[in-house]
Amino acid sequence: xxxxxxxxxxxxxxxxxxxxxxxxxxxxxxxxxxxxxxxxxxxxxxxxxxxxxxxxxxxxxxxxxxxxxxxxxxxxxxxxxxxxxxxxxxxxxxxxxxxxxxxxxxxxxxxxxxxxxxxxxxxxxxxxxxxxxxxxxxxxxxxxxxxxxxxxxxxxxxxxxxxxxxxxxxxx
Length: 172
Known about the structure:
By secondary structure, the chain is α+β, with helices and mostly antiparallel strands. It is about 25% helix and about 40% strand.
């Protein structure tokens, strides 16, 4: 899979431990709108997805996260778009570097059911939204990248930039 971009905060000098996380993200279009989740608490538009569990495939994770976050049942027509690397000082451990690989896939919806949000997702009041990619991009830019509670906003905004500016193949 192709590297789309890398975000390196270069704020981890002197840290010796590394924590790696692998995640998957869904890029879903319906009538030229992106299917995303939006926080009423912070306002950011976020791609549906999350961490890959041990012994779980990317496809299984995509399907689980879509169901949990959006009540979405994905069909099997899933196409790889590329991946993103994030590297920064961990916010959970003092002597740790956090490295995350997020793999993005173009997905299609089969049907909807009830979602099953995690506690922090309930706190952030995430709701499923159908949003024009440019509107989501501008929304996230205006929110900015300084809030430590939504560190993913920069990653998702950069991904939206690629979508808005037609810099990703495989959308057909």
